[in-house]
């Protein structure tokens, strides 16, 4: 039944709006009391599929440019269904040699794809936020160890706050991870030389000297407002010189490594101590999919293994218990959709997809520059295009309110989704085209719809 509904649903994704608010009334059908006597499996699933295919946000279609939303390639989706079919417990080798082996294989493939040394440790996580928790927990262990404290057994009590330094590009999820780890979200200090948040390297350098290098540097590879990145080689030099930890947030930006056109942005990634990336963004596998890579695999087992013991499998030992390398215990076999999609399309397929998104983004940038009532606010470097609506005759002080209102209207209209953000004090649109189905026609529609909805607002 689900398989039967899938074909027409997926085939129709390109035509339907991203969201049709008139269908939201269906959400009431989800409610009601807990049934005493159930409806039976067929009736329950039929109901769910009918209301789901109508009321869902069709964000895996080609025109959801809000936040940073990927999609699911056909192979990834089928791999995900297989994960549910087989229902593996992927935390322990003994429970699933299949899931364990698949995880080891895909982590190896991903390291190759991103240009990371094979010697790095890795673990699949539900998201980039949890990959931050994984990498930064290892950083926290390393940092506390310099004070002679085993933080896994003693905790942080008695230690000073752990200094975390970044540029103004730092993502909120880094702060959230630090907050979860008991380090506190406000320990992040940003060093920015302008209101776009670009790194002030000299200021960070001076502060690193002051704290004797006992600090964590967070480099951002692909920020969510403009796709801008910190200079990783310079930050790696800084980390090396001061003996600091270098963590890279490459949630989607790490895919820059796939194309010769953008690979320079990811140069130096191999010098990081920990790297965060997402699968449910540019890899186009279904939610929930993230990866954490850590230079020193032993630190992962010290941080997450039982009793703080380092459990180090031999390099060719396949009996890895992935629940000793990350924050989860029981977990699903999230390697399977990744395996299926990488096996299906290969490095070439992904390079072609990334380059198509670079072209689509540049095309959108061109359209914005040519439109008299749109203003491009940052160069298009990756797969994010930052601009605002700026028709003639509207004074600067009214533009933020106008763009916020236009953002609301765009989501209510539903044909194309893009969200607003704040960049250098301006309310802006920052669509991110990274769904495998997206073509130039989809971003052309975004421009048309925005101008169509904006025109009556200023009349
Ligand atoms: C999306 C994103 C995150 C958080 O990822 P989740 O998978 O939503 O937890 C972190 N950093 C950047 C740059 C992102 O784009």
UniProtKB/TrEMBL annotation:
<dbReference type="InterPro" id="IPR002129">
    <property type="entry name" value="PyrdxlP-dep_de-COase"/>
</dbReference>
<dbReference type="InterPro" id="IPR010977">
    <property type="entry name" value="Aromatic_deC"/>
</dbReference>
<comment type="similarity">
    <text>Belongs to the group II decarboxylase family.</text>
</comment>
<keyword id="KW-0663">Pyridoxal phosphate</keyword>
<protein>
    <submittedName>
        <fullName>Pyridoxal-dependent decarboxylase</fullName>
    </submittedName>
</protein>
<keyword id="KW-0210">Decarboxylase</keyword>
<dbReference type="Pfam" id="PF00282">
    <property type="entry name" value="Pyridoxal_deC"/>
</dbReference>
<dbReference type="InterPro" id="IPR015424">
    <property type="entry name" value="PyrdxlP-dep_Trfase"/>
</dbReference>
<keyword id="KW-0456">Lyase</keyword>
<dbReference type="InterPro" id="IPR015421">
    <property type="entry name" value="PyrdxlP-dep_Trfase_major"/>
</dbReference>
<dbReference type="InterPro" id="IPR015422">
    <property type="entry name" value="PyrdxlP-dep_Trfase_small"/>
</dbReference>
């Amino acid at each position: 039944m689900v398989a039967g509904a899938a074909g027409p649903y997926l085939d129709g994704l390109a035509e339907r709006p991203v969201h049709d608010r008139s269908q939201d009334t269906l959400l009431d059908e989800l409610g009601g009391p807990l049934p005493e006597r159930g409806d039976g499996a067929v009736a329950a699933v039929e109901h769910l599929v009918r209301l789901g295919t109508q009321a869902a946000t069709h964000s895996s279609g080609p025109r959801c440019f809000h936040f940073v939303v990927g999609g699911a390639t056909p192979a990834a989706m089928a791999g995900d269904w297989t994960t549910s079919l087989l229902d593996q417990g992927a935390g322990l080798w003994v429970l699933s040699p299949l899931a364990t082996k698949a995880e080891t294989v895909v982590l190896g493939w991903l390291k190759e794809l991103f240009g990371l040394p094979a010697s790095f440790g890795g673990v699949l996580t539900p998201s980039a936020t949890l990959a931050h928790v994984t990498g930064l927990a290892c950083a926290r262990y390393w940092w506390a160890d310099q004070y002679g404290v085993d933080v896994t057994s003693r905790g942080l009590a008695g230690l000073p706050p752990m200094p975390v330094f970044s540029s103004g590009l730092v993502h909120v999820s880094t702060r959230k991870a630090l907050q979860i780890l008991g380090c506190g979200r406000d320990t992040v200090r940003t060093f920015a030389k302008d209101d776009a948040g670009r790194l002030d390297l000299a200021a960070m350098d001076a502060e690193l000297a002051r704290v004797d290098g006992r600090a964590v540097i967070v480099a951002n590879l692909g920020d969510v407002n403009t796709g801008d990145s910190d200079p990783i080689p310079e930050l790696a030099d800084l980390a090396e010189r001061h003996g600091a930890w270098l963590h890279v947030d490459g949630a989607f930006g790490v895919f820059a490594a796939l194309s010769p056109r953008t690979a320079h942005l990811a140069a130096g990634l191999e010098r990081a101590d920990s790297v965060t990336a997402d699968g449910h963004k540019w890899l186009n596998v279904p939610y929930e999919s993230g990866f954490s890579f850590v230079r020193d695999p032993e630190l992962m087992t010290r941080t997450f293994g039982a009793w703080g013991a380092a459990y180090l499998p031999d390099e060719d030992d396949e009996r890895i218990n992935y629940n000793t390398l990350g924050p989860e215990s029981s977990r699903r076999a999230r390697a399977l959709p990744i395996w299926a999609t990488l096996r299906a399309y290969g490095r070439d397929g992904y390079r072609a997809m990334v380059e198509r998104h670079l072209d689509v983004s540049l095309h959108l940038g061109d359209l914005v520059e040519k439109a008299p009532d749109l203003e491009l606010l940052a160069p298009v470097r990756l797969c994010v295009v930052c601009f605002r609506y700026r028709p003639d005759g509207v004074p600067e002080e009214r533009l933020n309110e106008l763009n916020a209102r236009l953002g609301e209207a765009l989501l209510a209209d539903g044909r194309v989704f893009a969200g607003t953000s704040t960049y250098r004090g301006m309310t802006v649109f920052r669509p991110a085209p990274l769904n495998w189905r997206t073509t130039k026609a989809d971003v052309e529609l975004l421009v048309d719809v925005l101008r169509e909805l904006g025109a009556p607002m200023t009349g």
